[in-house]
Design brief:
Number of strands: 8
Helix content: 40-55%
Strand content: 5-15%
Number of helices: 14
Amino acid sequence: MSSNAHVPVLLGPVLQGLKIKPDGCYVDGTFGRGGHSGEILKQLNANGRLIAIDRDPEAIASAPQTLTNDPRFELIRGEIAQLESIITGRGLLGEVDGLLLDLGVSSPQLDEAERGFSFMRDGPLDMRMDPDTGIPASAWLATVAESELRRVLRQYGEETSATRIARAIVNARRDAPISRTGELARIVEEAAPARAKQQIHPATKTFQAIRIFINRELEQLEDVLQQTLRVLGNGGRLCVISFQSLEDRIVKGFIRDASREPEQYRGMPSIPVEFRPQLKPVGRVIMATAEEIEANRRARSARLRIAEHV
């Protein structure tokens, strides 16, 4: 994965989807290592503006100087759910021409064992995208009730063996705290039924579920999607890249609901302004080509959805 750390996923479709105007105002709501931001900035003239947001302090610290020294660019440490507040504070509410959200965990986060995101690399069981807020996954696992753990595994990981895995984790922590990614992966692997071991790694869904829960990823996504309706200007584009079905269903449902009037007004010749559609879907879902997947394994599950504010 390390070779993919700085490769922006679905770059061409994103740049096309944003429909970039040289003097426009754009937001990269999930800066990561700046791959998308750097390419967006190349398409802006001296009057263009790009605001990037990320809650990971390492992403902020590793931003290339070619970006941070550019007067058209501003990098902000914050959460995507703070989007409306950030844009309002800069007097740009309703004037943003395009917003990109590249969801999920980044390749550099997975690569670094100390961050605790990956079951493939043994390290402290943390999983926080912002290590200065919240509690690490190890602390949560030390006290969570078995029923709540089971719910999290089912809801956020779609784990069919949630009952067995939750029970195994609770039993294991009675002997010793679960503080390492390797320990958790081993517990899950031993608890998972044999059929699960023949497909993806048996710890995949458990790690996904705990990470999403710890970072409130789906709540953040739902919040920011609603804010886009107030942040984007007329004709502004929304581009969202998701990597797993939970995120994609939320994005798809949001675009669908925002692009049609409430049922009671459908077919009527005159619809009150507050009930008119606010988005227009642009094309169908876009997936990576075989060539991109070969060059960047992270792209294999990527889904891009685009909508225009109307």
